[in-house]
Protein: HAD family hydrolase
Organism: Sphingomonas arvum
Amino acid sequence: MLKAILFDIDGTLVDSNDFHILAWAEAFKQAGHEFRLAEIHEQVGKGGDNLIPALLPGIGEEEAERLKKAHGELFKQHYFNRLKPFPGARDLLQRCRDAGYTVVLASSASGEELKHHLDDVLGVRDLVDEFTSADDVGCSKPCPDIFVTAAQKADVSPEEALVIGDTPYDIEAASDAGIRTIAVRSGGFRDDQLSGAIAIFDDVTELLARFDASPLSQIEEAV
């Protein structure tokens, strides 16, 4: 029986992926590393602890930490005030609450970014039962830690939870945690990259419109 919905934030509820790409590009450039935006996009959805070594194999721990810090500062300085929720984001969380589900935000973002999303961008603290960020775990997505912790906070088994995310790394992390995923295309990934999901929708607006025909209300049939 489905009891909890674990929501990714960036690219799923908040239109932020492009801004993260730009912040990462500038952080890398300042450190003397040039990457095409498309190369960085392919890694979006991972936390900095996994994104940086994916692009710079063999990078030292101290340099990686400086890059991670630079990205966070650039993102906050240039993009925090430009973030907007995707249409239907709050309504979908409300619909899940109305259906009786525990609602959890589970992000690879820092705790500071998550709080900004929760309070200032989405304004959904009243609809969220629990939340977890990269600050709560030892390894960010695609490690399963984020979703394992989120399910534990929701006091549900993996079989009783469902992830909604926008990247292959949400799907990988959820799968390794034993949790199924509904994917949305709003993060800019192709369907073949999201093929591990049990269903794919254009965005949260479409998922909300098709709620009653989606795995959110028919989880028994979707398994």
Remarks:
- Residues 219-223 have pLDDT under 50 and may be disordered.
- The first helix runs from residue 17 to 30.
- The domain at 17-82 is CATH 1.10.150 (DNA polymerase; domain 1).
- The chain is about 45% helix and 10% strand.
